[in-house]
Design brief:
It is built from 3 helices and 6 strands; from the N terminus they run H-H-E-E-H-E-E-E-E. The chain is α+β, with helices and mostly antiparallel strands and about 140 residues long. It has a single domain, classed as Hotdog Thioesterase (Thiol Ester Dehydrase, Chain A, Roll), CATH 3.10.129.10.
Length: about 140
C-alpha cells in the first residue's frame, strides 16, 4: 500500500469510530499524508445565544482536521497543544471547509495549520496544532 492509500485508510478508520466528527456532519474531501480537506454544514443546534455558530463548532471541526492530517502517517498522533482565532461569525447554513497543512514533522512532534473557510472562500477561523507522534504504528 502506498503512503496516500495508507493515509486514506487511517483517516477512514478514525472517522468510523469518531461519533463527534460524524455528528458534526464532516465529509472527507481529500487525504494525503499530513494534509486533509474536510467539509461540513452548520446546523441550528450548533448555534449559541447570539444565533451564530458556537466557537466550539469551528474549533472541533479544525481539531478533527488536525487529527486526520497528523494520523495520515505511519504512527498514531495525539494533540498536545492547540489554539484558534475566530476571524468572522459563522451562521446556520454556512458550508465550511477545513484545510489542514503539515508545517513541520519531527521524530516525536509535528506542527499543523488549519484554515477554516466559508462558502464565500473567506477565512473564518485560523487554527494551529502541535501533535505528539507516539510509538504505536498504524
Amino acid at each position: 500500500m502506498n503512503p496516500k492509500q495508507q493515509a486514506k485508510q487511517n483517516v477512514q478508520t478514525m472517522y468510523n469510530s469518531d461519533g463527534f466528527s460524524q455528528w458534526l456532519g464532516i465529509q472527507i474531501v481529500h487525504v494525503e499524508p499530513g494534509n486533509v480537506q474536510l467539509k461540513m454544514t452548520v446546523r441550528k443546534e450548533m448555534t449559541n445565544g447570539f444565533g451564530i455558530a458556537h466557537g466550539g463548532i469551528s474549533y472541533s471541526f479544525a481539531d478533527s482536521a488536525l487529527a486526520f492530517a497528523s494520523n495520515g502517517h505511519d504512527v498514531h498522533c495525539v494533540s498536545i497543544e492547540t489554539s484558534i482565532s475566530h476571524l468572522a461569525a459563522i451562521h446556520v447554513g454556512d458550508e465550511l471547509t477545513a484545510l489542514a497543512t503539515e508545517i513541520r514533522k519531527a521524530n516525536k512532534v509535528a506542527w499543523y495549520r488549519v484554515e477554516v473557510r466559508n462558502q464565500h472562500d473567506e477565512i473564518v477561523a485560523q487554527f494551529n496544532g502541535t501533535v505528539y507522534r507516539t510509538s504505536k504504528s498504524w
